[in-house]
Amino acid sequence: MSSTGLRVPAPPVWLRWLPAIYVVVILLLEPITPVQWPVSFLLIALPVVAAYAHGPAFVGAVTVFAVGFEAILAGTPCCAGRAVGYIGERHYVASYISTALVGALGTILAASRMRRERTLATVRSVAETAQRVLLRPVPRRLGQVSIETLYLSAAAEARIGGDLYEAVPTSYGVRLLIGDVRGKGLVAVETAATMLGAFREAAHDEPDLTGVAHRVERSMARRAEQLEGNEVAERFVTAVFAEIPDHEPVVRIVNCGHPPPLHIVGDEVSELEPTDPSPPINIGVLVGDSYHVDVAPFSPGDQLLLYTDGVTETRAPDGTFYPLLDRVRSWGPLPPQELLAYLHRDLLAFSGGTLDDDTAALAAYRLPAEVPDRSEVAG
Asked: Fewer CB within 10 Å of terminal CB in the chain, N or C?
C-alpha cells in the first residue's frame, strides 16, 4: 500500500528472499574456494539484488551489511587459510568502495522502481474506475430474467478493453447488448462508451429492436465524423441486441456481425444463427443500415448465452480454438452463475492460464412463472 492509499502489487516471495539466498550461497562457496579466489567479492552485487524487491532504506542497510560482511570474510581464516591481515589488503579495500558505490546505485534504482510501481498503481486504479463506469454492475434479476456477466482482460495490468455488455429493463421487456469494438487502447474504450450510452437511451425509447440498432448506428456515425484519419474505419463494433418480452415466450435478436448466441434448453444447446445478418455498427453508412430481427422460442427455464469472440478464439497451447458449443453441451444444464464460473475456469485451463484477447459473456435465464398465493387466487 503506497502513501496515497493505492495498492501496489507486492513482489513475489522468492524475489523478496533473494538477497538472503544470495548471501547463503556465498557462505557455502567461501570455505571451499582457494584463497586466491575470494568469493566474498560477489557481495558487491548484493545491493542491486535487494533493489529488485525492496525500498531504498532497505537497500542502504543491505549495503552497510555487505561492506561489513566483506570485511569479516576477509579477516576470517576459515577453511581457506586466510590471515587476518587480508582485511586491509588493497583488493579488499577496493571491494569495500565498489560495494558502497553499487549500494548508492541500488538505492537510486529502488527509489525509481517504487515510483514506477506507484504510477502503475495509479493507472490501474483509474482503469478500474473507468471499467466500473463503463461496464457498470448488471442487476442479477430483471423482472422474470436472471442475469450474470463475465469480463476477463487479456492482461492483468489492463483492466479495461473494447468488449462491452449491458442489460436494461424497459416497458418492452429486458433488452440486452453485447459487443466487441474492433480496435485497441483508448480509441476502443471511447467507442465502447459511446455505444453503451446510445444503447441505454435507445433501449427505453425505441418500440422495436431494429429501431434500437438504427439509433445506436446514428449515434456512432455522428461520433465517427468528428474523428480524423484512419481511426474512423477502425471504430466499428460487432454486436448482438436481444429482447426478452415480459409476456411472450420468445427472444428477439438482431445480430450485427457478431458470434451467434447459444440457446440452452435443458440438455439441448444450439446456436441462434441469423437468417439475414445485419452489418456491424458504424459500418451501416458504407453498406446500408438494414437490420433484421430473428425470433426464437424462449420459455421459462430457457437460457441465452451471449459472448464475444475472445471466447471462441481462445487457443490451447497446441493452437486449437476453444470449442464453446461442445463444452457447454458437456456441462449439462447450469444456472447462469455456475455456467459463467465453469466458462471462466475452463477458458483458463484450456489456454494454459494465458488469454490473448479480452473476453466478455452474459447469461440470461428466464425464470419459471411465480405461483400466486392461495389468498390471491381466492380474491
From this structure: C
Q: How far is CA 155 from CA 1, 151, 349, 354, 355, in A?
A: 22, 12, 16, 9, 8
- Check pLDDT > 60 for residue 80: no
* pLDDT of 378 higher than 60: no
Is residue 27 within 8 Å of residue 20, measured between CB atoms? no
In this structure, the number of other CB atoms found within 10 A of the CB of residue 247 comes to 6
Q: Is the pTM of this model over 0.85?
A: no
| Strand locations in the chain (E) | 141-142, 145-152, 163-170, 173-181, 237-244, 250-256, 262-265, 268-271, 294-297, 303-307, 359-366
E strand residue ranges, 52-162: 141-142, 145-152
How would you write 52-80 as a 3-class SS string?
A: CCCCHHHHHHHHHHHHHHHHHHHCCCCCC
Neighbours of 256 (CB within 10 A): 26
96-140: pLDDT as tens digits: 899 999 999 999 999 999 988 888 777 666 666 666 666 778 889
Q: Over the stretch 135-178, which tens digit does the pLDDT of each residue have?
A: 778 889 998 999 999 988 765 444 456 788 999 999 999 999 99
- Which pLDDT value is given to residue 288? 57
Distance from C-alpha of 167 to C-alpha of 173, rounded to nearest angstrom: 10
Give residue 179's identity as a one-letter amino acid code: G
Q: What is the dihedral of CA 345, 139, 127, 221, to 10 degrees?
A: 110
Helices (H) and strands (E) in the chain, counts: 13, 11
The neighbouring-strand residues paired with 181 are 237
Quote the CA–CA distance of 276 and 205 in Å, as a whole number: 25
Over 80: is that where the pLDDT of 54 sits? yes
